[in-house]
Amino acid sequence: MPPRVINIVVAAGSGSRFGSELPKQFCELGGRSVLDHALERLENALPGSVTVVVLSPQFMDRAAGRMAVAGGASRWESVRNAIEATAGIDADVITVHDGARPLPSAGMIMRVVEACRGHHGAIPVVEVTDSLRNVDGTPVDRAAFRAVQTPQAFRADMLRRAYTLPCRPEFTDDASVMTAAGFSDIAMVDGDPMNIKITRPADIAVAEVYLTHGARR
């Protein structure tokens, strides 16, 4: 039987680095918003799943009929708000995805969800292609590192318990919250180089190329 899945899509950011009056997740990509692409891909890959969109109060109408939750002062608080809002919904797995990542592939989405059968959770990762150095200038072996993407997926009961912890500075993603709560068996599965996060205007142009030339669905 397929797992019961809740998707939390975080789209409450202001996008200050993007340099636009409209937050990046609402900017147009291929005739639709960045957020719309992300939502469609998640829901197509996980039919029957429940999606909750975390939004700033002035953009609550962007949920397009889905459950909408107001974001908080931080990403951690936004995810916690969504977890609390869905407490009454039975689920086996909860995914958490950045609304500014419009091109997650179905294969990658299924890999993180399926990995939850044997692990506390799963995160998609890709190889680091740039050279790395510590802030003191010391070279770092990039082969020892991976860049982490979303959606991340976790066993629902564990993620709900993990988010009862108070926020900490080291909580940079949901996997770090899980690890702090003692749920450290987090699988790393193959991510997708086309699953970029829109951060600056040039990223829209890159995503347009990926979308036009067959970013995997």
Describe it:
With 217 residues, this protein is of the alpha/beta class. It has a single domain, classed as Spore Coat Polysaccharide Biosynthesis Protein SpsA, Chain A, CATH 3.90.550. The chain has helices spanning 34-45, 75-85, 106-115, 156-162, 174-180, 201-212, and strands at 5-11, 28-29, 32-33, 50-55, 67-70, 93-98, 121-127, 132-133, 139-140, 146-148, 152-155, 186-190. Strands 1, 4, 5, 6, 7, 10, 11 and 12 form an eight-stranded mixed beta sheet that branches. Strands 2-3 form a two-stranded antiparallel sheet. A two-stranded antiparallel sheet has the order 8-9. Helix 1 (34-45) packs across helix 3 (106-115).
Topology:
Layout: E1 5-11, E2 28-29, E3 32-33, H1 34-45, E4 50-55, E5 67-70, H2 75-85, E6 93-98, H3 106-115, E7 121-127, E8 132-133, E9 139-140, E10 146-148, E11 152-155, H4 156-162, H5 174-180, E12 186-190, H6 201-212
Parallel strand pairs: 1-4, 1-6, 4-5, 7-12
Antiparallel strand pairs: 2-3, 6-11, 7-10, 7-11, 8-9
Nearest-integer average pLDDT: 94
The total of helices stands at 6
| Secondary-structure element series | EEEHEEHEHEEEEEHHEH
Level-2 CATH architecture: Alpha-Beta Complex
Give me the Rg, rounded: 17 Å
Question: What is the name of the CATH superfamily?
Answer: Spore Coat Polysaccharide Biosynthesis Protein SpsA, Chain A
How many beta-strand elements?
12
Could you say which structural class the secondary elements and strand pairing correspond to?
alpha/beta
CATH class term: Alpha Beta
